[in-house]
Amino acid sequence: AHAACYVIVTPECTFGRLRNMILPPNCVQLFSRNFSKLHCFRISENLQTESDEDDDVDGSTQGSTKDIQISTDSSKQTLKIFDGNDAVKRNQFRLISVPRIAKNEEVVEAALRAYYINDDQQEYELQTFTQQVLLSDDVINRNDAAEDSNLGSVFRESVPEAWIIRAKPKDEEVIRIYPAWLKVGMAYVSLRVNKDSTVQTVIKEVLPLLGRQTECLQNFKLVEVLMGSKQVQRMVLDDQELILNRLKDIRKTSIRQMNQTRFYIVENSKSIVQVNLFVGGLPPQLSPEEYTNILKEELAIKTNVVSVSHVYQAQGAVVLQISCFSEAERIYMLVKDTVVNDKPLNAVVLPAVMASKIPQNCCPLLVFVNPKSGGLKGRDLLYSFRKLLNPHQVFELTNGGPLPGFHMFSKVPSFRVLVCGGDGTVGWVLGALEEIRHKLVCSEPSVAILPLGTGNDLGRVLRWGAGYSGEDPYSILVSVDEADDVLMDRWTILLDAEEPAEGAENGIAEPEPPKIVQMNNYCGLGIDAELSLDFHHAREEEPGKFNSRFHNKGVYVKVGLQKISHTRNLHKDIKLQVDQQEVELPSIEGLIFINIPSWGSGADLWGSESDNRFEKPRIDDGLLEVVGVTGVVHMGQVQGGFRSGIRIAQGSYFRVTLLKPIPVQVDGEPWIQAPGQIIISAAGPKVHMLKKSKQKQKK
C-alpha cells in the first residue's frame, strides 16, 4: 500500500479465494539486504530471457537498430548518450538521432527523452569523455575544433560521437522524504536542503513535519533506497553526510538512478542478522565436523559468524546460519564456482518460516516446478505461481532439487505439495519426501500433480490429465484446493547382481553393488524396458528434438517397428517368485509389475474384465499386479485399447532371478541389469496423493 493509504488499510488481509494455500507474508522472515530478488526468490538467471526496460542492457544491444532506426538522412547524425560514469564503465549507452545542426538545448532534450527523464533540460548539460562541458553557445564541427561562438546556440556535427549527460551543480534543492512504516497519514514531506544540510539536520527538520517532534533524533535514521527493476538496494546514510554531496554522487553515477532513488526516514530497530543458506552438492554420509572442514577448505568460512544449523547426510547438503551480510554474500557467490569431488556445489537463500504465526485453518501449498518439463510450459508456470502465491513457496527443481523446499517447510504444521513435471519429476519429489519425512512436523503432506511433458500415467490416474495444455494457473490452484485425499502404495526395488562364477577366482569381474530404487507406477523387464532404453539413447543423442508429445510418440513407434522381427524367450531367462511361491511364466517377451491402472501413456495393461483368480486392483491395496506381453505387436494392441496383457500374478512380495543381463525400467528410467536377484516389496507407509474431484475434472 502507499504510505498515505497504509493508515486506512484494515490490519487483516483475506488473500482472496486462495487464502488457505498462500503462505502468509507475515510468517516469512528474510534478511536479504543486497541479495537481489533473483537470489531471494531462487529465480535462475538463465531463465531470465527478457530484459527489463528500466535496466541497463549491453551497449551493443542498446545501440542496435532494434532500439532506434539510424537515419540515412544526410541532415541527421546519430550520437551515443551515456547517463553517467557507471554507463561509461559498462559501455551501456542509448542512441539519439538529431539534426546535424541543432541547438544544444534540443540535443539535451533528446538525450533526456532517451532515458525517460522529464526534468527541465535547463538543469542538465552534455560533456565529452574528457569532461569538457558543451556550452550553449558552442559550435562544434566534425572536421574542426570549436569555431567562433558568435554563430549562435547551435550544435553541429560533433567530433566525438559519444556524450555524457550531466546534472548541473546546485546550491540548494527540494527533496522528498518518505515516512516508511511510520503511520503519519501522508505519502511524503518536501524539504529544502542546502550545501550545509547533513543527514542529521534533515532528520531534525522532518520529524516535526511528521508530528514526531517529541521523539529523540537518535531513534531514527535516513535510508537511501534504490528501486531498480531487478533488485532493491538499501543504504543507511551517515549522520554527518552532506545531502547535496550525496545527490551529486548519485547523479554522477547515473542520472536515471537518481529518479529511481528515494530517501526514507526509518525508526531504529535492533534486529539480529541471520541469513539461512542451503548448500548442496557435497559428498554424502559425512559427519557435521567433516562438512565444516570441507566448507573451511573450499569456502574459507569464518566460524565466528557461520555455523552449520542442519545436516542432511544422505543428500550431501547442509544449511548454514550466517550472522554477517557480507559473509553471506561472499559465500553465496563463491559456491557457484566451487567443485568438490568433481561435483559442483549449489546454494539457495532460504527465508525462515515462523510456523507459530500461521493461522490454524491455513494449509500452505509447497510448489515444485521442473522448468525442463513440457518445453517452456514449466517456466511459464513458475512465473504464474510466483504471482498468484507467495513467491517464497514456489521452488524451481533445477535449483537445488526438492530438499530446500522441504527444509523451509519442515516446521509448518500442515501443508500440501504440488509437483509440476513428468512422472520422473513426481518420483524425484516423492523420493525426497520419503528421505526427509522424519524431519518434518507434517510428515505426510498430500501431493498433487500438474503433468508436464510425456507419459504422465500417474497424473491420468489421479484425474489431472495427460498433460498441461495452457489451462489458467489460477483454476489449477482452485482445483488443488478442492482435490480429494487418497492413499497410494509405493514400492522398494532391491537390485542385487551376483558375482560371476569365474570372476570369483580370477578377480576379473567385480559384482555390482546392491542398488535400491523406489517405484511409484510400474517396473518392466524385457521388451518394454528395451524400447525405453532405445528411446532414452535417441533422446540423449538429439535432446533438442524431444520437445513435443507427437515427436516423442513417433520415436517410440519407430523404435518399436525395429523390434518386431526379433524373437526372445524372456520366460527362459528369468524366474519369478510371488509371496514365496514359484510362478510358472508363459511364453512372453516382457514382464511388467504395475501399481497404477495406467501404463505407457494411458493404456490399461491389466484390463477391466472380472477374474475370480485376482482381486480388483486399487492403488492403495498393498498389492502389485504382474502382467506379461508377447512382443511389440501385443504392446501396440494394448496401447490401442484392443487387447490387455496376460495376467500372471498379484502379490505384495516378489523375487525375480535374472539368469542373463536383461533391460529393466522403473517409472520410465531404463538400464541393463546384470544377472542376479530383484526383490520388490512395499516401501514403508503409503503416500498421500491428491485426486482431482470429479466436478472439477476437465470434460
TrEMBL record:
Any one Gene Ontology BP term: phospholipase C-activating G protein-coupled receptor signaling pathway
E.C. no: 2.7.1.107
SMART domains: DAGKa, DAGKc, RA
UniProt-listed PROSITE patterns: DAGK, RA
Residues annotated as domain Ras-associating: 171-270
Keywords per UniProt: ATP-binding, Kinase, Membrane, Metal-binding, Nucleotide-binding, Transferase, Zinc, Zinc-finger
Keyword Calcium: no
Cellular component per GO, a single term: membrane
Domain of life: Eukaryota
Coiled-coil features, chain-numbered ranges: none
Domain DAGKc as annotated: residue spans: 360-497
Protein family (similarity comment): Belongs to the eukaryotic diacylglycerol kinase family.
Protein name: Diacylglycerol kinase
Organism: Panurus biarmicus
Gene behind this protein: Dgkq
